Amino acid sequence: MTRKHLFALVVFVGLFATAVRPALDPDLGWHLRTGESIAQTHAVPHQDSFSSTKAGAPWIAHEWLSEVIMYELTRVGGTAALVLFFALLVAAAFGIVYTRCESRPYAAGVLVLWAAVVTIPAWGARPQMFTMLLASAFLWLLDRYKSTDNPHWLWLLPVLMAPWVNLHGGFAIGIALILLYASGDWLGGNRKRIVPLLMSAAACGLVIPLNPNGFRLYTYPFQTVNSSSIVGYIQEWASPDFHRQIYRLFLLFVVVGIVVLARSRQRLTAVEAIPLLATLAAALGSARHIPFFVFIAVPILSRRIPEVASSEIRGPVRSSAHAAIAVLALFAAGLHATKVVRDELRAELKEFPVAATEFLRQHSLPGPVYNNYDWGGYLVAHAPEYRVFVDGRSDLYGDALLTEAVRAYEARPGWNSILERHSVRTVLVGADVPLATVLRESNDWRNVFEDPQTAVFTRVDEDPALERK
Amino acid sequence: MPSVEDLFFITTLLLLTLSAWAARLLWDTSTGWHIRNGERILHTLTIPRTDPFSYTMAGQPWYAWEWLWDAINGALHQHFGLSGVVGLTAMLIALTFALLYRTAADRSGDVVVSATLTLLALVASSIHFLARPHVVSWLLALVVIRELDSLERGSRRALWTIPLTFALWANLHGGFVFGLALIGVYAVAAALEREQLMARRLAGLFAMGAAATVLNPYGLKLHWHIVRYLASGQQMNQIDEFLSPNFHDLQPRLFLLLVLTTTATLFAARQVRWKTLLLAVLAIVSGLMAARNIPFASILLVYASAPLVADLLRHGRFQQLAAAGERMHFVDGGFRGHLLPRIIVIALFGTLFTGLQLPGAGWTASRVPEKGAQYVVNSLGARDHVFAPDYWGGYLTYSFASQGFRVAQDDRSDLYGDQRFRQYLDVMNAAQDWRRVIGDWQIRTALVPTDSSLSSVLAAAPDWKQVYSDSIATVFVRTQTAGGR
After folding, report:
1. How many CA atoms lie within 13 A of B389 on its CB side?
2. What would the pLDDT profile of A113-150 be if each residue is shown by its tens digit?
3. Of B277, B431, B485, which is closest to A262 when you measure between CB atoms?
């Protein structure tokens, strides 16, 4: 094994190791229950059976195939199998990016690692990882077409689209990527490449109805991005918060990218620029689009970094003293990145209401239950006899109910009416949230359980023997 | 004939003074305590060293670093009321964007490109169009850029205009830090371009500018105070205007369009100088870190991108458009003198001398607790120990300080510090500890937004009683000490 191969191996082992993280996604619970239901009934659900607020309402279980895979992995190998599998998906996605790079292994390896770190907030045992892998694969195929002008590469795109449509709602990104490449070719004057691209986009579009929900998936992606509550209330749909360290690494990536591309003698082509700028806009609009931006940016940068580095950093840097400084700087940067990753993990360790849920079940507290949005998935999995008020299926609940859930959570005037309208008899929320504070003051509710993280309340007219624990 | 620059000035000025925008300039009630502070300065001929407006920080050191802005607005308010304050702010904003257009047009030689980019920047910047001293920083940043450019062209004027500008700036607004950053960028760029003599001159100018900023009532202590304030993670991560922009809103989207335009032209340009690149990077980083920096960033992006866009049009597919823009620029160059803007400014301020007020130059009823506050002060006779949101603090000081009213908290976040700010948030967000803070601050009355978590909590609390409510604010008074809940 050569030194270069060893370096590449170290990069990807490190990437895989970083991607192996506790399965803490808030939606994991209802994903597993859905997968279990499908595995046992051999039917994809079309109605909700987990919530009290939308019981029986039409539900587009668009990630059914992911959910079956997740359930089977858990059944066979426990949570460890789940975690390892999704870590492999992440590593594979970035492995494909690496193969699209020049300047392998060193510059490309560092760039891929950096890009991977800035996408960490999106990682987890969740169907979105399939979208990351498939988007990366789409870009590999599009690049092969670009470099060979052989349209046969494009016919694999609809082949990949077929499972994608059944794995995750991000399949629309695949078509968007094709259209961006087509736009770049049109602007760049490569007109003969446009028709095959458009035809493959059309073929991908024709494949979309090949899912249990049929033609409804044509509109599903647009419903999501146009939902004001999804965009307004769900953090990963919001613009990146550059006060968070992890997103500052992303900002640094963007800045370095701009400097390199502006100073490079290799001018950006239209087919590079259009997807790059479009995905940058998407990434600044919603943090969950950052992976698509870095998938496109990394190969573009890898082609130019050696030229810019050698032209801007002249002869003296080759001396040993300056080389030592560069190594130290890289080491310090690596240490900092490690700390940021660790801090991010700590931040993600949202404690689930384990003790409160046990209390709920042991004392058979009355339903319906009002719960935090983030805890809905946990309750679906760990308190299956209860129906949740709300969980991560924001497309199911819709703007009106999500707004109600938020108003109740924030204890805005009318919170009581919201709980009454939905016949809520038990509330399980964070101990420090406004709803918990107002319920402590209210004569109509009784605090029956409290720990530093969670508070549980029941209506006063419920079982008077239920003492606060 | 008015020039395009004149049109930018006139249109912006009239929009901000005669339309609903006049009221929007007063949406941030901190204008209120700026005005009252200015009046105190004029009355006492001293600059405050301790806080006069709150009871929680009474006697504590207060850095009224914007004292000169406060004094000017205090004087205007005494003679013209809120219309004077709105008029000055509108004029400064109009001047800034007219000057931005002029700068872009001079650099690009193209009216269409410059006007389009300036218009984008103007609308994007409207996110922070408020009657507050930061508007001065936008104008002064542009002045510094123009002076630095004149230095590059061989003029020595900057050797005295820069220090003078910074001496003034340090007494108007803390944004002088950005001004120093600009000189730093120019100096680094010159060094990277191997223009050693220019780099040394700029380094010297940086030192002169920095030294001039010490000429303020607090000396070097002001600088240390600003550094500590900006390093405050708690406040920088909680105060809306210091948060990163939300690109789902209109103005940030237009800023994003400017970012993408600048980035695209940087990638496509035949040659990019370090100065242009570093200014663009400074703009992008500052704009993405805090929404309040969008105007400053937009100005830099227009400055950086205008000549690049014009050059691309000239050498690309839009040569006819470029030619038209250049012809218009040539014609526009003949319209000098700025007669019409002068007439309009004189007419505008002339009407103020007659006692007429600008329509809409007042507090927006839906944003201030006018009746609730009057109830607290006049019906309840409360003068302190009243909890209210910090964003109402300026209005309360403006309306009732003369009656001896003192706030618990307002938006002078550098004064109150991290710990008190955390406590304030605990109450506003109805956290578990709200009672402890209410007790520590000895709050007896609460004036809160009707549609708020705290309103619900106080309504449910047995030791608080609602005594007044309207669609904006609700008033609660403490009836007894809560026991045993």
Report:
1. 24
2. 999 999 999 999 999 999 999 999 999 999 999 999 99
3. B277
Look up residue B204 and give its two tokens. Answer: 């010297």
Contact B478, B442 (CB under 8 A): no
Compute CA distances B55 → B60, B373, B404, whole Å.
Answer: 10, 17, 10
At residue B332 the predicted structure's pLDDT band, cuts being 50, 70 and 90, is confident
Mean pLDDT of all residues belonging to chain B: 93
CA distance B473 to chain A (A): 12
Residues of chain B contacting A231 with CB distance shorter than 8 Å: 248
* Local structure of B53: helix, strand or coil: coil
Spatial distance between the Cα atoms of A24 and B420, rounded to a whole number of angstroms: 34
Does B268 contact A267 at a Cβ distance shorter than 8 Å? yes
Q: Considering only the C-alpha atoms of chain A, give the largest distance between any 2 of them, rounded to a whole number of Å.
A: 82
pLDDT digits (tens, 9 = 90+) for B118-177: 999 999 999 999 999 999 999 999 999 999 999 999 898 999 999 999 999 999 999 999
B247 in contact with A at a CB cutoff of 8 Å?
A: yes
pLDDT at A328: 63
- Interval B22-60: pLDDT, tens: 899 999 999 999 999 999 999 999 999 999 999 999 999
Answer for the pair A241, B244: CB distance below 8 angstroms, yes or no.
yes
Q: Is the CB of residue B412 less than 8 Å from the CB of residue B395?
A: no
Phi then psi for A133, rounded to 5 degrees?
Answer: -65, -45
Which residue among A239, A254, A281 places its CB closest to the CB of B244? A239
Which residues lie below 8 Å from residue A222, measured CB to CB, with a gap of 6+?
Answer: none
* Alpha helices by DSSP H, A189-269: 194-207, 220-225, 228-233, 245-263
At B320 the pLDDT is 77
CB A217 within 8 A of CB A60: yes
CA distance B393 to chain A (A): 22
Report residue A459: phi and psi, to 5°: -70, 145
Look at A258 and B280 and tell me if their CB atoms are within 8 Å: yes
Give the C-alpha separation, B127 to A140, whole Å.
Answer: 41
Interchain proximity A267–B267, CB inside 8 Å: yes
Joined tokens for residue B464: 């608080």
* Both tokens assigned to A278: 């479009």
Q: Supply A41's token pair.
A: 């009934």
Residues contacting A115, CB < 8 A, separation 6+? A94, A97, A253, A294, A295, A297, A298
Chain B positions touching A255 (Cβ under 8 A) are: 281, 284-285
Report the distance separating Cα B403 and Cα B418, nearest Å.
Answer: 29
Q: Cβ distance A126 to A31 under 8 Å?
A: yes
Q: Which of B114, B87, B86, B120 lies closest to B102 in space, CA to CA? A: B114
Rounded CA separation B306/B104 (Å): 6
CA pair distance B168, B177, nearest whole angstrom: 13
Who contacts B137 (Cβ-Cβ below 8 Å, separation ≥6)?
A: B169, B172, B173, B175, B176, B178, B179, B296
Residue A347 has a pLDDT of 57
β-strand partners of B387:
B446
The structure's pTM equals 0.92
Close Cβ partners of A334 (under 8 Å, ≥ 6 residues apart)? none
Cβ–Cβ under 8 Å, residues A428 and A391 = no
Tokens of A288: 């969950």
Of B246, B267, B280, the CB nearest to A238: B246
pLDDT at A317: 47
Distance of alpha carbon A54 from alpha carbon A443, whole angstroms? 29
Ranges of residues in chain A whose predicted pLDDT is under 50: 316-318, 467-469
Q: Is A299 helix (H, G, I), strand (E, B) or coil?
A: helix
Positive or negative, the CA dihedral A437, A441, A446, A447 is positive
Where b means 16+ CB within 10 Å and e means fewer, B334-358 reads ebeebebbeebbeebbeebeeeebb
